[in-house]
Design goal:
Layout lengths: L3 E5 L3 H4 E11 L3 H8 L3 E2 L4 E5 L2 E5 L2 E2 L16 E4 L2 H11 L4 E10 L5 E10 L2 H23 L3
Antiparallel strand pairs: 1-8, 2-7, 2-9, 3-6, 4-5, 5-7, 8-9
Length: 152
């Protein structure tokens, strides 16, 4: 079956220097899971933070499921993430370093049907870093095109 991606944060690789990726489970309610299965989620402006030994995901927007009338949920409520204690301790140490933050990259369903979020331990890029990475990307693209045109 494989994984089925619900949503991605494509701007994260542009805005942050990604050092490490971590997979975490999410604590969700039934209507939220149904809405995720329909692909109604958005990761823009969302972030994760360690608070009192637990990891929480903030500002992730899950559109309310239209047929769930018995539950009234806030679409951007704070959601708890499920990680091992050892992973949380390591994240606490890393996020206390200067400039590191936890950024969600994508939300997906794994092969067992569980909703997962891929977090990145990342450092924010400055404007000149963004320009340099765009320039490198452009040069790489031009080299690939020149290589394809070269007759062998």
């Amino acid at each position: 079956m494989g994984i089925r991606i619900v949503c991605q944060n494509r701007k994260a690789s542009h805005d942050y220097q990604i050092d490490e990726k971590i997979e975490a489970g999410m604590v969700l309610l039934g209507p939220e899971v149904k809405s995720l299965r329909e692909g109604r989620a958005n990761l823009t402006d969302s972030y994760a933070r360690v608070k009192k030994g637990e990891v929480f995901l903030y500002n992730m927007h899950i559109t309310p499921y239209p047929y769930a009338h018995h539950v009234d949920l806030d679409p951007t409520r704070t959601r708890k993430l499920l990680l091992n204690r050892r992973e949380i301790k390591r994240l606490i140490g890393k996020t206390e370093e200067k400039g590191y933050t936890l950024v969600p990259l994508k939300v997906y369903f794994n092969d067992r049907g569980r909703a997962k979020v891929e977090l990145a331990l990342a450092k924010g890029k400055r404007k000149y870093d963004k320009r340099r990475s765009l320039k490198e990307k452009q040069l790489k693209r031009e080299m690939e095109q020149a290589r394809k045109k070269w007759p062998y």
